[in-house]
Amino acid sequence: MRSLARYSRAATPWxxxxxxxxxxxxxxxIVARWPAAMWPLHGAxxxxxxxVSAWSVDERCSAIVDLVxxxxxxxxxxxxxxxxxxxxxxxxxxxSLRDRLPDHLGVLVLQGVSAVLVGFAVATWQxxxxxxxxxxxxxxxxxPAAVAIALAKPWSTHVPVFPxxxxxNWPRATAIWSITGGxxxxxxxxxxxxxxxxxAHR
Amino acid sequence: MTTTTPTVSxxxxxxxxxxxxxxxxxxxxxxYARRPAFLFGAxxxxxxxxxxxxxxxxxxxxxxxxxxxxxxxxxxxxxxxxVWASDRCADAAGSTPVPMATRTLAHLxxxxxxxxxxxxxxxxxxxxYLTDPPPPSGYAALMSDxxxxxxxxxxxxxxxxxxxILGVLIARMTDRRAAPILISVGLVALAIxxxxxxxxxxxxxxxxxxxxxxxxxxxDGDPQRSMVFTGSPQxxxxxxxxxxxxxxxxxxxxxxxxxxxxxxxxxxxxxxIAVVTCLAAMWTGTPDTVVNPLPGDGTSWGG
Lengths: 202, 303
Description:
The structure holds two protein chains of two kinds.
Chain A: H1 2-11, H2 14-33, H3 35-38, H4 40-55, H5 62-65, H6 72-96, H7 105-128, H8 134-152, H9 170-201
Chain B: H1 4-14, H2 21-34, H3 36-47, H4 65-93, H5 100-110, H6 112-131, H7 145-173, H8 179-193, E1 214-215, E2 227-228, H9 233-252, H10 261-283, E3 290-291
Antiparallel strand pairs in B: 1-2, 2-3
Helix pairs in contact in B: 2-5, 3-4, 3-6, 4-5, 4-6, 4-7, 5-7, 6-7, 7-9, 9-10
């Protein structure tokens, strides 16, 4: 347990994670103050959380770490606190600000949780393929893309990724984010299984 | 005499950009055009033009957010990544014959690729505007064709140039990989604050590289009523282009060998021009907010 905590402390980019958590608190507070005007920042925050949860999986010392006896599930458990911190901030902020946000708390919470999960899972999957720092590259795509989609809302009638108004298709948004989260879970399980299989063949 | 000539020539070489930049610019343009993030944004942007295949579809006067966000904003991180990637190659190669300023210029030139996408979007939209004008209850119907073209060119095309140039500047100013991401989010937050929604900020909003010039911002009793904001979009286009030049020059001057008194003076002059054009954009043109007399039709801002 002590080695798990030591590894978690040393390998996780805590500075970036905590900074992101603080930024998320600020952005969500602004969104709650002026929801109609500032709503794109809600999507931007989701993109930021997905990006940083992916980034938290990066392994600078992969050349050494990938060869040690610790399996991927162990390292994933050690990395998880960063993603859990982001999820905790997201959920806590939505619970505390729910009166000022659209009346679909479940979907809003689901968006952040799924985004963090899928970012973490895809970066973990990339780690099993020998990519040492996939999170940085993912972050460079995911965050700007989420911000851009939140602003431009392309095809929002058919694909309501970041809905806000009552007339928008909230059930479809629930489906989109449930599938996103589900894919995240499956990818994470597949990554750990793949690593276990690779180690069994060594 | 024979020993001083090569020294002078070498000094002259260091203070100018080497002629390889054109070749390098071509390579960087191709690399930029192949970036998945750029392709993603460009595809979504051009797809936003698909409704115009229907001849009955009127032009969407608020659609310039598409190229600005999907190509310009994404361009910040794409450019920064490209600069860092080429720096890694240069570091790995050791002493390279291509100086940093030349590489920077090539990256700046690669911004033409996203700019072209923005230009295509504006051209198609404006052509549609001329043949099938937007509804009279909108904001564009209140203004001249030249005013509309200036606004759309600035919002849809210049933003696609400015974003990537800002990315090059960020990469030249810092090595922190999170910088372009955090700056993108911060820029969006600022752009929303200064987009014209908040009345006290409407006059000064034009200092931002992206802001609205009109839209269904609403009045008491009609939350969808369209209006046109104060200022001159023509001066704003000039201001934005000068801002791009300032950012490019600052990025180039990060190469100490390239810095000279001459380009320092040029930078100072550009900053002065930027301030003057920004003030002109703020205080000339439309003197007061113009409210459309027709009621809003609820076509945007979420209906």
